[in-house]
Specification:
Elements: E1 15-21, E2 27-31, E3 38-42, H1 48-62, E4 68-74, E5 88-92, H2 95-112, H3 120-125, E6 133-139, H4 141-145, H5 162-165, E7 167-174, H6 178-181, H7 185-192, E8 196-200, E9 222-226, E10 233-237
Parallel strand pairs: 3-7, 3-8, 4-5, 4-6, 6-7
Antiparallel strand pairs: 1-2, 1-10, 8-9, 9-10
Protein name: Cell division protein FtsK
Keywords: ATP-binding, Cell cycle, Cell division, Nucleotide-binding
Organism: Mycolicibacterium fortuitum (Mycobacterium fortuitum)
């Protein structure tokens, strides 16, 4: 595990530090305002959970609970204890727990959908509601979606409006079988809407899954970040020191 040390403070609630980029050996911040969703793919042990922990820790360090709320979906409990503050809207280690936690997020999203009374000006500057950015962090998405009815399917109707509603979906899953998983409605939805991608270590035989980059065998914690705003680049995921959180 790497430590990035002190970083510039108080970024917007839609930005989070992910790691160090190869281009300038400088901190890489992902912009969830430009692209509301992120998909993380890779083999077992490549550092997918570490990437989610890094994002969670930075969002909590940079924002008050009034600015950011997180729902952690964590069937293997790799994120257990990462957030123990008022930023946590729910922690779901099982489908049953998710069925209890998700409705709180859905209720907030319903209340933020613009009605006929919302003016064009309000739509432009997103001023018809106030409240925190909502992050749904899902580790081992293949476990969550693979048991029949996907418990996250109620989010599907809100994905096209994610930026307007302050919704951000972060999905991490193993790369094996990911090509077939791209037909899953949630996964297909975020990809069709132009999600960011972090392609971590995986077999080249898996084929191109994110952007135009074929998977490579990489050290743990390293991956290729794919966004619309910059060329693809290798990033080493880093966790902020506890004194910074």
């Amino acid at each position: 595990m790497h430590d990035i040390g002190p970083v510039p403070r108080r970024r917007p609630a839609t930005q989070a530090l992910l790691g160090l980029g190869e281009h300038e050996l400088a901190p890489v911040v992902v912009d969830f305002n430009a692209q509301p969703d992120l998909v993380v793919l890779g083999d077992t042990g490549c550092g997918k959970s570490t990437a989610l922990r890094a994002l969670c820790c930075d969002l909590v360090a940079e924002n008050d609970p009034s600015g950011v709320q997180l729902l952690l979906v964590d069937f293997r409990r790799a994120l257990l204890g990462v957030i123990d503050s008022g930023h946590l809207v729910g922690y779901a280690p099982s489908a049953g727990a998710l069925d209890v936690a998700l409705p709180r997020v859905l209720e907030t999203l319903r209340s933020r959908m613009p009605g006929p009374e919302v003016t064009q000006r309000q739509l432009c500057d997103r001023s018809w509601w106030t409240g925190p950015e909502l992050y749904v962090m899902v580790d081992d998405y293949d476990l969550v979606a693979g048991g029949g009815v996907n418990p996250l399917s109620p989010l599907l109707q809100y994905l096209p409006h994610a930026r307007d509603l302050g919704l951000h979906l972060v999905l991490a899953r193993r790369s094996g079988g990911a090509a077939r998983a791209m037909f899953d409605p949630i996964m297909a939805g975020v990809k069709d809407l132009g999600c960011m991608g972090l392609m971590m270590s995986a077999s080249p035989d898996d084929g191109i899954l994110l952007g135009s980059t074929r998977p490579l065998r990489l050290p743990p914690g390293r991956g290729t970040l794919v966004t619309r705003s910059a060329p693809d680049q290798l990033v080493q995921v880093v966790l902020r020191g506890r004194e910074d959180v």
